[in-house]
Amino acid sequence: MEKIHSRRSARIDAERLWRALIDLARIGATPKGGVRRLALTELDRQGRDLFVRWAREAGLAVRWDAVGNIFARREGSEPLPPVMMGSHLDSQPSGGRFDGAYGVMAGLEVLRTLNDHKVKTRAPVEVASWTNEEGSRFAPGMAGSGVFAGVHSLRFVSSQKDLEGVSFGEALERIGYAGAGGPHPVGAYFEAHIEQGPVLEDTRTTIGVVQGALGQRWFDVAVIGQDAHAGPTPMELRKDALVGASRLVLEVNRIAREYPDYARATVGFMQVMPNSRNVVPGEVHLTVDMRNASDSTLKKMKDDLQASATTIGAECRVSVEVREIVHFPPCEFAPELVDAVRRAAGALGLSHRDIVSGAGHDAVYLARVAPTAMIFVPCEGGISHNEIENARPEDLAAGCDVLLQAVLERAA
Ligand code: HGY
Ligand code: MN
Ligand code: MN
Q1: Which end of the chain is least crowded, N or C, by CB within 10 Å?
Q2: How far apart are CA 377 and CA 208, in angstroms?
Q3: d(CA 53, CA 59)
Q4: Ligand 1 contact via 359 beta carbon (within 6 Å)
Q5: Does the beta carbon of 360 lie inside 6 Å of ligand 1?
Q6: Burial (0-12, 13-18, 19+ Cβ within 10 Å), 20
Q7: Is 400 in the pocket of ligand 1 (CB under 6 A)?
Q8: 88, 356, 385, 389: which to mutate for ligand 1, most atoms within 8 A of CB?
Q9: pLDDT digits over 328-348, tens only?
Q10: Count of domains observed in the chain
Q11: Is the peptide bond before 140 cis (omega within 30 degrees of 0)?
Q12: Threshold 0.90, pTM exceeds
């Protein structure tokens, strides 16, 4: 009983967790207080190296797989599949200090705490850092966890190119994190993450007990018209790709506003060519990110997008080519693990509420290969994917204590 009592009374070191987050955020720090650690860049390598160093200093066995996912492992007393924690170290181009980093540092803090309290777990416990979760430099997002879960082939992901034409595989080799493949069973997976939305802060709740995540469909769209002179070319003769693209942006916004079930749609990226002030743009490339809590509604949104593209093409005398590059349905996490998160929050006396994730996470793909759950903590103003992203040390520590207790329940 004593041992169980000591486990239950174990608490993470809030100061050490905060310091790890602040030290990590120095890598790729941006002027407005965020981070820019795009996947597989030199800065991503530096973040990975720091995590690997800290993990080894904590006596953990560290390895990485063929797609660069890093695993830091603390052995258990029995040869059971590990209880895994994790998230991602890559960021958006102007990202925040906590998106992804919190889940990896919280996992490391849990293992450091188990060491401090000399807790012997039955199952091994691991913390993972998944490659290219954001999908900003290389699409698709959640690429590392996608290969791990068998959603994407290594070949497909390795062949993806960034805007400079550098392939994922080349970039991974260049930073020295192309490891070996091989089976890697997982007994359970827990991911701690900031909510990246306003619900927890608005309702003064410390812990989000995440039920699941919205489904997503990502598209690459090419609008092709004809370069022409901005002076002599009469308006009615133009094939203006930017006019077509601009109408499509408004349609994407209309679709999200019209459909039910947490409909969301965003055009986040646009390239205008030749991008010269006195040339009618002949070519525009843009991205569309659509999300919904219902897969059938998500499909209707996709069909509506395609219909709008066809109409715009005809009316603007351009071709509009919509190519889907990612689709995953809404996911529900494992009830028994979601309950473990809820019980841990309750036992710690923390306010908590059920919540659905609008963001995608590596947990969405881990849920395909192991019982999975997530723990959310509030972020200031619900703002994320923004350099001003912020979270309170006490909330981050509370979420990490929930992670510790939920992991102990499964591993001990
Ligand atoms: O886009 C997403 O949902 C994740 O935050 N990368
Ligand atoms: Mn994230
Ligand atoms: Mn993100």
Answers
A1: N
A2: 6
A3: 10
A4: yes
A5: yes
A6: buried
A7: no
A8: 385
A9: 999 999 999 999 999 999 999
A10: 2
A11: yes
A12: yes
Please state whether beta strands 188-194 and 83-88 pair in parallel, antiparallel, or not at all (unpaired): parallel
Instruction: Give residue 198's pLDDT band: very low, low, confident or very high (50, 70, 90).
Output: very high
CA 126, 363, 10: angle at the middle one, nearest 5? 45
- The 10s digit of each residue's pLDDT in 129-159 is 999 999 999 999 999 999 999 999 999 999 9
Say if residue 6's pLDDT is above 70: no
Phi, psi of 375 (to 5 degrees): -125, 120
Is residue 134 within 6 Å of ligand 1 at its C-beta? yes
Contacts of residue 400, Cβ cutoff 8 Å, sequence gap at least 6: 12, 14, 17, 106, 109, 110, 192
Ligand 2 (ion): residues with CB under 5 Å are 99-100
Among 299, 328, 357, give the residue marking a domain's end.
Answer: 328
Listed residues 284, 312, 328: the one ending a domain: 328
Q: How far is the CA of 100 from the centre of ligand 3 (A)?
A: 7
Work out which ligand 1 atom sits closest to the CA atom of 142.
Answer: 6
Q: Which domain holds residue 391?
A: 4-213+330-411
